[in-house]
Amino acid sequence: MKLIRALFIANRLWFSLIAIVLLFVAAYAFPILFPLMQIVFAVFMLLIGMDMWLLFRPKNAFFARRELPERLSNGDENPLTIYLENRYTFRTDVEVIDEIPFQFQRRDVLFRARLNPRETQAIRYELRPTRRGEYSFGAVNVFVLSPLGLLKRRYQFEQGKMIAVYPSFLQMRQYELLAATNRLTEVGVKRIRRIGHSMEFEQVRPYSTGDDVRTINWKATSRRSDPQGTALMINAFQDERSQPIYCLIDKGRVMQSPFEGLTLLDYAINASLVLSNIALMKQDRAGILTFSDHIGQLLPADRRSGQMLKILELLYRQKTRFLETDYENLYASVRAHIRQRSLLLLFTNFETVSGMHRQLPYLRRLAKDHLLLVIFFENTELRTLLTEPAADTEAIYLKTIGEKFTYEKRQIVKELGQYGIQTILTAPQNLTATTINKYLELKARGMI
After folding, report:
1. Between 66 and 398, where is the model more confident?
2. Cα gap 100→104, rounded to integer Å
3. Which of 17, 105, 192, 349 has CB atoms 3.0–4.6 Å from 444's, for a disulfide?
4. What are residue 83's DSSP bridge partners?
5. Closest to 167 (Cα-Cα) out of 81, 275, 244, 80
């Protein structure tokens, strides 16, 4: 039974069989061909038996292994590798079918390779998950063909592998690396010019090229003598540290709109992860609060070594109930648990001015005690619709409605600004860079 399950017929055998049948049909019209066709058929059966002997005589004549990361990063291209090793004594053609999780909805994970005796090869490809949670990988199916190419022998490896998909830690590492090498401008993070000196004094040090001349300490300069002249001394400042930064993530139904496979909630979760890491690198304290019709989870702001792992695990478990968000409950929870003035980054979505007005009293109360930054999303499909010319009356109506919704988004930004509430209106794909820019701007202006 194991042999039958592992035995498959190659296309070459089917084509050969069809040709032989046609020639047997022709032999009825030309009887002289019939003895010859009998010989051809006998040779054909002999080749099938030889092919089966070549494929199934050795045991464990082929090896394959799938290499997976410990976890996958949501919304990113994750590299996977399949290693192949040919232990046959002849060259083999192989077809590899990887049984990836059903969440990807892909049926094209098929690879072909040719391996010489004792040769190893690596097949590399990428998968982009769009949902957090556990993903189950099936077997790696390898179909091996001998040089005759009539039959296939199936090998199966790596049965039943479970792997978790976490928020975008690859994006977090990318921003962390770029921040460490001062290359954040490559991903759209602007260089922020600091206004004034809302910083803590650190030390007096010698002047170097590029330092602000307004920070020269003339008294220290006069006390220090240099054989080649007077060495200028400046006051060095450091950023104010240990400021609490909270990401408030709305898990209500307004955050379930999809964009490029990910929901707005997942974009907010990925941006919160990256921003929290940047805040910790700036020596600030990062915390998370999730909410919908009730308060989800609250992680108090902290900057100890294990805080980033706690944030990652908390964000991984977030789910929505597709219900209306309760901002009154959010305000009560913030007032009860966040006593120190903090920067609150509220990830939500407002489609209409009236929808914002219903929540405005609670937003104003939050802004009274904290620095509130409301982050919501542009409708990129509306933007595409508005840029296309109208071809008929229906298109004119659609463009008019689209312009109304776009105007209301800008009106929301304007009205929130009148109450001193900071806002970000951004496309989902630009969310992370835009949010980091705003955080660095607020920090540079000493508003936190």
Report:
1. 66
2. 7
3. 192
4. 65, 122
5. 275
Residue 156 binned pLDDT confidence (cut-offs 50, 70, 90): very high
Nearest in space to 327 (alpha carbons), one of 265, 371, 374, 285: 374
- CB contact set of 154 (below 8 Å; sequence gap of 6+): 5, 6, 7, 8, 141, 142, 143, 144
Q: Are 157 and 168 in contact (CB under 8 A)?
A: no
* Helices 169-180 & 431-444 angle (0-180, nearest 10): 40
- Distance of alpha carbon 398 from its chain centroid, rounded? 33
25-29, 233-237, 286-290: least confident range: 233-237
For 205, list phi and psi in degrees, rounded to 5: -140, 165
Q: What are the φ/ψ torsions at residue 142 (nearest 5 degrees)?
A: -120, 120
Host H or E run for residue 407:
helix 393-418
Task: Output the pTM of the full model.
Answer: 0.80
Neighbouring residues of 94: CB distance < 8 A, sequence distance ≥ 6? 62, 84, 86, 112, 113, 114, 115, 142, 143, 144, 145
What is the mean pLDDT of the segment spanning 265-281? Answer: 94
Predicted confidence (pLDDT) per residue in 85-120, tens digit: 999 999 999 999 999 999 998 888 899 999 999 999
Helix (H, G, I), strand (E, B) or coil at 262: strand
Give the whole-angstrom CA distance, residue 197 versus residue 234.
Answer: 13
Under a CB-based contact definition with an 8 Å cutoff, are residues 264 and 249 in contact?
Answer: no
Query: Domains in the chain and their CATH numbers?
Result: 1-166 (2.60.40.10), 169-193+240-444 (3.40.50.410), 200-238 (no CATH)
Model confidence at 210: pLDDT above 70: no
- Please tell me the predicted confidence (pLDDT) of residue 59: 86
What are the structure tokens assigned to 323, written together? 């219900």
Strand-strand pairing, 295-302 and 285-291: antiparallel
Look up residue 142 and give its two tokens. 């390898």
pLDDT digits (tens, 9 = 90+) for 25-78: 998 888 888 899 999 999 999 999 999 999 999 888 999 999 999 999 999 999
Q: CA of 61: how far to CAs of 56, 150, 166, in Å?
A: 9, 18, 37
d(Cα 379, Cα 69) in Å, to the nearest integer? 34
Pairing of strands 110-115, 120-127: unpaired
